[in-house]
Write a structure and sequence with these properties.
Hydrolyzes ribosome-free peptidyl-tRNAs (with 1 or more amino acids incorporated), which drop off the ribosome during protein synthesis, or as a result of ribosome stalling. Monomer. It catalyses: an N-acyl-L-alpha-aminoacyl-tRNA + H2O = an N-acyl-L-amino acid + a tRNA + H(+). The protein has 6 helices and 7 strands, in the order βαβββαββαβααα. The protein is an alpha/beta fold. Helix 2 packs parallel to helix 3 and helix 5 runs antiparallel to helix 6.
Length: 197
């Protein structure tokens, strides 16, 4: 992917709400929202009609909305679908940030469109958008447990300290690129993120 048809207007960080899941691999999308708010200010506020917490991010001449669904991961579409429909957001203007077990900790990859790859949060968003798959994704590597039977407990657990540092570094680098994504400069963001070892 080198270009996006338009700048990002909504960044959705996927995860599970509640203290029980805080800091788990599955909540990598939440980690990005926390980092953006730490850097640029603002606060997430509950919007019950969208089953989500929302904030507005101001970054240079650009702004977008940040969304943290308050459904569980498997029902993320209950937040994204109604919001996108109400504001008539083209799928290409939505960036969904999620954990990716097929990438090692410390890697981030951007992608536009595609399937869900077994990720239940993406699966539900695709369903809620009327089988539309054209939204953008930021895939934050969290590593793989080695066998598919171990995936659920793995993503719902907290990473070891060295893995956590690698994931946090990747989140920080993704946060560095957000202004380019808001401007639609996907080529520049991809060049930086995809060159990470």
């Amino acid at each position: 992917m080198t270009d996006s048809p338009q700048p990002i207007q909504l960044i959705v960080g996927l995860g599970n709400p509640g203290d029980r899941y805080a800091g788990t691999r599955h909540n990598a999308g939440f980690w990005l929202l926390d980092e953006l708010l730490r850097r640029h200010g603002g606060a997430l506020r509950p919007e019950r009609r969208y089953h989500a917490d929302l904030a507005t991010l101001h970054l240079g001449p650009h702004q977008c909305r940040l969304m943290r669904p308050q459904t569980y991961m498997n029902r993320s579409g209950q937040a994204v679908g109604p919001y996108a429909q109400f504001f008539r957001l083209p799928p290409e203007s939505i960036l969904v940030v999620h954990d990716e077990i097929d990438l090692p900790p410390g890697q981030v990859k951007l992608k536009q469109g595609g399937g869900h790859g077994g990720h239940n949060g993406l699966r539900d968003i695709i369903r809620a958008l009327g089988n539309e798959r054209g939204f953008c994704r930021a895939r934050i590597g969290v590593g793989h447990p080695g066998h598919r039977d171990g995936v659920v407990p793995y993503v719902l657990s907290r990473p070891a300290p060295d893995e956590r540092r690698a994931i946090a570094d990747a989140v920080e680098e993704l946060a560095d690129c957000v202004e380019w994504l808001l401007a639609g400069d996907w080529g520049r963001a991809c060049q930086r993120l995809h060159s990470r070892s």
